[in-house]
């Protein structure tokens, strides 16, 4: 890890009497892809939202790019791209209008950025189409494209492969690898370890709001041994290890 | 991120559903058109509701003659009805068919004696379809009058019998009966003055101006226009859109400002149909000697205020209620609640006292009053009072909506 881009320090979050996150700490380097796993309700979405500055933690700090993100939320948000699990697009607008609408740039530079992102994600042909006319997979690609508009240093992907066909999955996996190579860190959550593990550098598993596993991908595969990736993940989540 | 660009796209989103837009824009107009098919003959008489009525009386009784005399010459009803006595039924029907009178009323022979004997008695009413509402109102008024006269007559007859039992002469008892009947008729015909309420009779039998209903229709539709705003705002603030917006540099404040602006424009457009209505009414007033006093500038300001208040209310509902469906249903029922409690569906005088008091603190009531006064009877004092009240609503709802959106955007 050359440069520590993100440092999560003792983050906790409760909703009433339910503890979603309990004293979570970890750090991430530049260009690193962290795979986040856990069953439903384990605290994955809360953690992603806190890192994306869309949810306030009860305790703890997020140090992002050397700054305390809680004290500089606008600066931090400007460097974070977020791909929500749901399609966060304006269905009534065209793909191009959506990209322009969410772009932080103005005028010609905004338009140029939209064309660049469209080129990277093969969206040129659908730029003039309204989002409501696109297939689920296409919408996910546009959803992903929006997160890249601000040239983020950290990309947060909440279950980005749900409902994607093989072609769209390959396009997004390819983009993720390229982004990593260019120094963009990524946190990607999901329920399919077979699909995500080959993509990520490190694996983190949450259970009942706590980190129950955090290690490099190679270590994970080594520990899994003869067990399949999926079964090994199941054992971690169920606390059998 | 350009704020103007975001506002522009927000407007585009809101206006994308052309069917929804058409429904919002033209529904009040359709309702007004249907309404005016019935009431327009009255509006164009120049002073709101005014009847031209032909009357053929074949009852020779003194009481009915007195009743007719009162009706023809009453000062209390002079602005409401002009009665033209005719000799024959044929002549009356001819006048009604030629449109020279709105309604022809035929009082048959022996009406009064039938009433005295308790028989079911009805005057015949003729009119064309264009004057169906006047016919209905005359029927209601005559049925009501004849019922009151009949009951009064029974009381008078009982009093006459009491006098005879006490030894008064038949002549004195008859004189008492005639005098008492005359007095009762005078009081009944003059009740409009006693009520102290000017203005035409509404279809619901209250002394509410027809103009009130035009304002009520537009106010209700302005309130109903909150529903698409609630739908969009609730979906955006409860879903990932707002969260994404935060990360794309669109903070809750900018999001709020864009939605309030686009919502205000949307509701304002729903109200724009008031302009042609205002112009037509003003012209009809000038041509026909009416008394409508309107202020175009104040109308514009009131429409903006109404649109702003309902837009802010929509955002409050969308951001404070848990979930899009809950917010939508709440918005719908709140509109119905406001329409009832503010006297837009049921006259205020027919409401329980507490309901009328509650209604005065709802934005629909202020909007309704403002528009009604501005279209027909503008007074600076009344307008200022209602405009300040509307500004008060806006001052309360706008920060509440922004607070709600901030809570959704960056929940603690």
Please summarize what this structure is.
Chain A is an alpha/beta fold and 241 residues long.
Task: Describe what this molecule looks like in 3D.
The complex is a heterodimer of chains A (241) and B (412). Chain A is of the alpha/beta class and 241 residues long. Chain A has helices at 44-51, 73-78, 95-102, 107-120, 136-148, 166-181, 193-196, 217-224, 229-237, and strands at residues 4-15, 18-29, 33-37, 59-64, 67-68, 80-83, 154-158, 185-189, 202-207, 210-216. In chain A, the strands form two sheets. In chain A, strands 6-7-8-3-9-10 form a six-stranded mixed β-sheet, with helices on both faces. In chain A, β9 (202-207) and β10 (210-216) form a beta hairpin. The longest helix of chain A is centred in the last third of the chain and has 16 residues, at 166-181. The two termini of chain A are 27 Å apart. The mean pLDDT of chain A is 89. By secondary structure, chain B is mostly helical. Chain B has two domains: 3-44 and 206-409, no CATH class; 51-195, abc type-2 transporter like fold (3-Layer(aba) Sandwich). Chain B contains 18 helices and four strands. Chain B has a four-stranded mixed β-sheet with strand order 2-1-3-4, with helices on both faces. In chain B, α2 packs antiparallel against α9 (210-224), α14 (296-320) crosses α15 and α14 (296-320) runs parallel beside α18 (380-409). The longest helix of chain B is centred in the middle third of the chain and has 34 residues, at 132-165. Chain B is elongated and about 100 Å long. The two termini of chain B are 26 Å apart. Classes of the chains: A alpha/beta (241), B mainly alpha (412). At the A-B interface, α2, β6 and α3 of A face α1 and α11 of B.
């Amino acid at each position: 890890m050359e440069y520590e881009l993100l440092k999560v320090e003792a983050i906790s979050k409760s909703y009433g009497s339910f503890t979603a996150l309990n004293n979570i700490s970890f750090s991430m380097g530049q260009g690193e892809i962290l795979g986040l796993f856990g069953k439903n309700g384990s605290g994955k979405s809360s953690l992603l939202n806190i890192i994306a500055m869309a949810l306030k933690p009860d305790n703890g700090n997020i140090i992002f790019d050397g700054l305390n993100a809680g004290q500089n939320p606008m600066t931090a948000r400007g460097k974070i791209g977020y791909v929500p699990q749901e399609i966060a697009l304006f269905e009534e607008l065209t793909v191009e209008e959506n990209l322009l609408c969410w772009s932080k740039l103005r005028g010609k530079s905004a338009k140029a950025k939209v064309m660049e992102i469209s080129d990277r994600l093969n969206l040129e042909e659908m730029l003039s189409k309204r989002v409501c006319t696109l297939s689920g997979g296409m919408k996910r690609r546009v959803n992903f494209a929006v997160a890249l508009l601000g040239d983020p240093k950290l990309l947060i992907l909440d279950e980005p492969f749900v409902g994607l066909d093989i072609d769209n999955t390959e396009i997004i996996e390819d983009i993720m690898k390229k982004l990593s190579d260019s120094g963009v860190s990524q946190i990607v959550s999901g329920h399919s370890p077979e699909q995500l593990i080959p993509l990520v550098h490190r694996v983190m598993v949450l259970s009942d709001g706590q980190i129950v596993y955090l290690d490099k991908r190679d270590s994970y595969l080594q520990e899994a041994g003869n067990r399949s990736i999926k079964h090994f993940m199941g054992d971690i989540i169920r606390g059998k290890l | 991120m350009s704020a103007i660009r975001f506002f522009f796209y927000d407007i585009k989103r809101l206006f994308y559903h052309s069917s929804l837009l058409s429904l919002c824009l033209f529904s009040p107009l359709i309702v007004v058109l249907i309404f005016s098919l019935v009431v327009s003959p009255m509006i164009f008489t120049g002073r709101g509701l005014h009847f031209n009525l032909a009357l053929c009386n074949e009852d020779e009784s003194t009481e009915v003659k007195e009743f007719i005399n009162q009706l023809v010459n009453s000062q209390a009803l002079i602005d409401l009805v002009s009665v033209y006595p005719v000799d024959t039924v044929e002549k009356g029907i001819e006048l009604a068919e030629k449109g020279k009178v709105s309604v022809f009323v035929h009082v048959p022979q022996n009406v009064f004696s039938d009433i005295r004997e308790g028989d079911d008695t009805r005057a015949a009413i003729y009119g064309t379809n264009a004057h169906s509402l006047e016919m209905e109102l005359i029927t209601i008024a005559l049925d009501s009058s004849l019922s009151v006269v009949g009951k009064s007559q029974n009381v008078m007859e009982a009093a006459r019998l009491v006098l005879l039992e006490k030894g008064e002469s038949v002549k004195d008892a008859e004189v008492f009966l005639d005098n008492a009947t005359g007095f009762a008729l005078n009081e009944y015909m003059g009740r409009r003055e006693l009520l102290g309420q000017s203005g035409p009779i509404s279809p619901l039998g209250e002394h509410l101006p027809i103009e009130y209903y035009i304002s009520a229709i537009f106010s209700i539709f302005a309130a109903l226009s909150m529903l698409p705003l609630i739908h969009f705002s609730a979906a955006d603030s409860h879903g990932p859109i707002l969260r994404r917006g935060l990360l794309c540099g669109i903070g809750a404040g900018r999001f709020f400002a864009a939605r309030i602006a686009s919502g205000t424009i949307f509701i304002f457009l729903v109200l724009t149909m008031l302009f042609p209505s205002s112009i037509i009414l003003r012209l009809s007033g000038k041509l026909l000697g009416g008394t409508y006093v309107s202020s175009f500038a104040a109308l514009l300001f009131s429409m903006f205020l109404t649109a702003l208040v309902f837009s802010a209310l929509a955002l409050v509902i969308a951001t404070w209620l848990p979930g899009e469906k809950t917010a939508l249903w709440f918005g719908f029922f709140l509109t119905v609640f406001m329409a009832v409690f503010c006297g837009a569906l049921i006259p205020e005088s027919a409401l329980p006292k507490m309901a009328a008091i509650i209604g005065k603190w709802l934005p629909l009531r202020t909007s309704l009053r403002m528009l009604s006064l501005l279209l027909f009877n503008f007074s600076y004092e009344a307008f200022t009072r209602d405009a300040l009240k509307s500004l008060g609503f806006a001052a309360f709802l706008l920060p509440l909506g922004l607070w709600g959106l901030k809570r959704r955007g960056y929940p603690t």
